[in-house]
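Morning!

This is the sequence you dropped in the shared folder:
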Amino acid sequence: MDVIIIYTAVFICLVWVDTTLVWAFFKLTRNLDSPQPLLLTAESLDEFSTDRYSPMLGLLTPQIPTKLRKQRCHLFQQFLRQMDNDFRRICTGLKLILVQSEQDRPDLAWGVLRKEMTFAHLRMKVQFKLIGYRYGVDA
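The structure's back. Tokens below.
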């Protein structure tokens, strides 16, 4: 009897984890904002600065009321979306340079792809931690 209960509990946990991962995947891949144009010009390079994201550092402070935590998570999400758009624009610009180059540089193309995968992985980790923070769970 105990074995059946344990197997049932494990099964329910696995289903919950799978459902959570599928939900997170769709939530992260859904683009809520209209995508910005991906054009990268010499003038637009001046827009890219890490100073633009410095307010993110103070948003997620511990021990704040739930309503304020929810608002700060929303602001943090907006910064993440902007960061994602900026990163995509930069990667697209790099890919265009690689395609138009007279020399093939598979090492650079592979490097851009690795950075895109790393960025996506780290963004997903931040999203999970943000969900935990929003509901007061230490992640």
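Headline: The chain is about 65% helix and 0% strand.

More detail when I'm at my desk.
O.
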